[in-house]
Amino acid sequence: MWRVIASVLAAFFGVQKESRRREDFSRRGAGAFIVVGVLLALVLVCLIALVATLAAR
User: How many C-alpha atoms does 14 have within 13 Å on its Cβ side?
Assistant: First the structure.
C-alpha cells in the first residue's frame, strides 16, 4: 500500500517516471490508485481550507 501512496504522491507532483507508471499499472489495477488519489486529493483540499481559515483570523 505504501508503494501506491508513493506513486500517487509522485504523480501529484509530476515527478513520476513513465517506466514506474507502467510498472505500477501492470502489477495492480487502477482501482487502488483511484481510491488513494481521491483520498489524498480530499486531504489536500482540507489542508488548504484549514490554512485559509487560519489565515483569515
Answer: 0
